[in-house]
Amino acid sequence: EAGVTQFPSHSVIEKGQTVTLRCDPISGHDNLYWYRRVMGKEIKFLLHFVKESKQDESGMPNNRFLAERTGGTYSTLKVQPAELEDSGVYFCASSSFNGRDNEQFFGPGTRLTVL
Amino acid sequence: AQTVTQSQPEMSVQEAETVTLSCTYDTSENNYYLFWYKQPPSRQMILVIRQEAYKQQNATENRFSVNFQKAAKSFSLKISDSQLGDTAMYFCAFMKDPYTGTASKLTFGTGTRLQVTL
Question: Which residues of B are less than 8 Å from A39 in CB distance?
């Protein structure tokens, strides 16, 4: 079974540009999460999809970040325009819709560098 | 809001020895889950061990075990017989009880970088 995949693995852009990150969850997982780790700090929650709906977007830092999950499958996270403080590693995770079986499976992350 | 604190940024242990990573958390919830995740260098983060707060018995997974002290809000990870492959970043994480039927987000600590040496 394929795990969670993310694309690209690395992205280097200049301040003011746009970047789109993609996450493909494990097939059949209704829950999809985005997290971000800024250098040396904790991994912070950004948002949570259940199928195609946003269940919790309380961690989204500002309106420069837009997440979508078309048809409840893959998800994209767009940053427009990117700022220096957006640099970090963006992780995606997925889990099945079962309260007690709550393990989240993580992708390898996308390392974003904004210059 | 929940917080998770890992006070050891880096640790080192010799192969075959035992090491304990500390984690404390703060929450007003009564039912929740605690996790230790491991991220080896240049690899994906994977779940090491999980503890349900309503269970008094400490979770164990082979060489990995936890010391869960609910009253003290402490959740340490013990790695016995350390192996070179245990070298990784270890993250402690908290999740509110999702048993209501809605899955929930993880709240992470800042991580502990563990180096296993020969």
Answer: none
